[in-house]
């Protein structure tokens, strides 16, 4: 579907959620930070006792905070 809409010559940066249908498009991709942060929150809840997951999620969130995106 994405190829049909954007065409095969799309030369921009594709900003999207993590829907797999976008993965077969060539070119630069930027994943949506909000979708990532929501997934991180869910992962942290599911893995509440896993300190490695908690530390990794915190490190990813720290990148977001330092970048001043939000």
Summarize the structure.
With 70 residues, the protein is mainly alpha-helical. 51% of the residues lie in helices and 11% in strands. The protein contains three helices and two strands; from the N terminus they run H-E-E-H-H.
Key phrases:
mainly alpha, two-stranded parallel ribbon, 2 strands, elongated
Please provide a written account of the structure.
The protein has 70 residues and is mainly alpha-helical. The relative contact order is 0.13. It is built from three helices and two strands. The longest helix has 17 residues. The chain has a two-stranded parallel sheet. Helix 2 runs antiparallel to helix 3. The radius of gyration is 15 Å and the shape is elongated.
SSE topology sketch:
Blueprint: H1 2-6, E1 13-16, E2 28-31, H2 33-46, H3 51-67
Parallel strand pairs: 1-2
Helix pairs in contact: 2-3
The span between the termini is 30 Å
Strand content: 5-15%
Q: Can you summarize the main beta sheet?
A: 2 strands, parallel
SSE pattern, N- to C-terminal: HEEHH
Average of pLDDT: 90
Helix content: 40-55%
In the sheet with the most strands, the strands line up as 1-2
Number of DSSP helical runs: 3
Radius of gyration: 15 Å
Low-confidence stretches: none
Shape assignment: elongated
Query: Care to count the β-strands?
Result: 2
Classify the secondary structure makeup into a structural class: mainly alpha
